[in-house]
Design brief:
alpha+beta, Ubiquitin-like (UB roll), five-stranded mixed sheet
Length: about 90
């Protein structure tokens, strides 16, 4: 299945693109999709990913099609063909 991954901010600058299309096996989890991204762009480890396995840093979330946030507890669930995953950095502080 085909999944689009969109990068925002510094991640887009590092990857030198704002969007990529990945082909992943049917039934792939969000974590597996993100692991593919980490392996394709290892410089994102430490910026978006805690490790090459696709684990996101606490300040990073995924938005599925701009309609649903994928929480850490749901990373082992998966997208469907044609989904767009937007990688978003959350800024916190006071």
């Amino acid at each position: 299945m085909k999944i689009d991954v969109e990068f925002t901010g510094l991640a887009g600058e590092i990857t030198q693109t704002r969007e990529i299309e990945l082909t992943v096996p049917k039934g792939a989890s969000y974590r597996q999709v993100m692991s593919r991204v980490a392996h394709k762009y290892p410089r994102l480890v430490g910026l978006l990913f805690a490790a090459m396995d696709g684990t996101l840093l606490n300040s990073i979330v995924l938005s599925r099609n701009g309609e649903e946030m994928i929480l850490p507890d749901h990373m082992d669930e998966g997208p469907v063909d044609g989904d767009r995953l937007i990688v978003v950095g959350i800024i916190v502080g006071g």
